[in-house]
Amino acid sequence: MRSSVAMETANRGMTLGIRFGIWAAGVAAFVCCLVATPQAAVAGEGRTAVKSAAKAGAAVKSRRKARVIPYRPSVGQKQGLRATDDPLDLKSSVALVMDQDTDEILFSKNAEAVLPIASITKLMTAMVVLDAEQPMDEPLKVTKVALDTPRNNHSRLRVGTELSRGELMHLALMSSENRAAYSIGAAYPGGMAALVEAMNRKARELGMKDSHFVEPTGLSADNRSSAHDLALLVKAAYQNPVLREYSTAADASVSVGRRMVQFRNTNSLVRSPLWEIGLQKTGYISQAGRCVVMQAQLAGRKLIMVLLDSAGRYSRVGDAERIRRWLDALPAPSAPAALPPAASLSPRLDSASVSEREGDLGRSGSDTF
Question: Does 2 have pLDDT greater than 60?
């Protein structure tokens, strides 16, 4: 009897002990939560502060990247040339369209204004280098442009890369590569000073009375000319098949280091089926605006077109298209008077044969080196 009561009492005590233990554990957990909550809050605030600081830093970096470049008006704009009206509503301050064969001026707008010509300079550089008759397959090292600044030092040609003179001239005319133009200029007999002297001498020989050159790339705003003078330059350059081929190729691949790099023509019109371009060169610096010179077959005539100081990125192409449509709408030029019958001419002389290479003045269209 006593044994049974003792066992029951022991069981009750154990039950009470277990319940008390559970209650004590709950109280202890509650107290731990009260103590840990401020620390967790502080830690959370710290993490939030770190995230906020990171976001703020990213925002500052974003603002730095999105920094607006100060607007720089062109020389033509400063002179008020962009306010000149014309019947075609061109966006270019200067425009000239000339018949290549007769020198007839079909369209003119501020054609005598002397302005920076940007990379159109490279056309004169290439002409002078070709006149020197240096080997086109001679390897040259790509040279850093002396005028490199943060706003014009972009180039896909690494300094020290070795390419032939022909490859460098091709890239200078087709893709307007500044380092390519500078490198062939630096390798000119007598160096850069002799090259610049030859460029100015060539300008005088061509009758370019309002033109002046100080370096071979066009990065300097001191390289200046007029639309009238540039038409003379294009007319002379067109006679050289190398300049026609290199300037009108749509694209080309060249080995730069261990990889092949694809270059494209800066003038999108060479890829248009509506245009038959025999020679071209584009140009841009902020002082010059967007520029382009071309020889093209339009409306049944060989024409020379010059557009300088165009306002927008695509406006020079838009102006060229406006001129093309205007020319297409003009009456066809009258045919020249017929020659008298052969019998009434002076005695016939046997003419010397002319090979296709010597006689062909058409666009070659090559896109490889």
Answer: no
Q: Which residues contact 299 (CB under 8 A, 6 or more apart)?
A: 327, 328, 330, 332
What one-character-per-residue DSSP string does 138-180 give? -EEE----TT--TTT---SSPTT-EEEHHHHHHHHHHS--HHH
Please give the mean pLDDT across all residues of the chain: 82
CA-to-CA dists, residue 227 to 99, 108, 198, 210, 338, angstroms: 14, 9, 21, 10, 34
Give Cα 20 to chain centroid, integer Å: 84
Active site residues: 119, 122, 176
pLDDT at 194: 98
pLDDT over 50 at 63, yes or no: yes
* Cα distances (Å, whole numbers) of residue 165 to 2, 133, 140, 285, 325: 120, 11, 6, 25, 39
> What is the amino acid identity at position 250?
A
CB 224 within 8 A of CB 211: yes
Nearest to 124 by CA among 223, 35, 38, 33: 223
CA distance 200 to 145: 20
Does position 274 have pLDDT exceeding 70, yes or no? yes
Length of the chain: 369
> Which residues, including other chains, have CB under 8 Å from residue 111's CB and lie 6 or more apart?
94, 95, 96, 105, 226, 227, 228, 306
Reply yes or no on whether the pLDDT at 365 is more than 60.
Answer: no
Q: CA–CA separation, 247 vs 253, rounded Å?
A: 15
Per residue in 219-268, pLDDT (tens digit) is: 999 999 999 999 999 999 999 999 999 999 999 999 888 899 999 999 99
Beta-carbon contacts of 219 under 8 Å, excluding residues fewer than 6 positions away, are: 118, 145, 147, 152, 178, 285
Residue 330 has pLDDT above 80, yes or no: yes
How many whole angstroms separate alpha carbon 174 and alpha carbon 315? 20
Mark 17-44 as b/e (b = at least 16 C-beta within 10 Å).
Answer: eeeeeeeeeeeeeeeeeeeeeeeeeeee
* pTM reported for the whole predicted model: 0.73
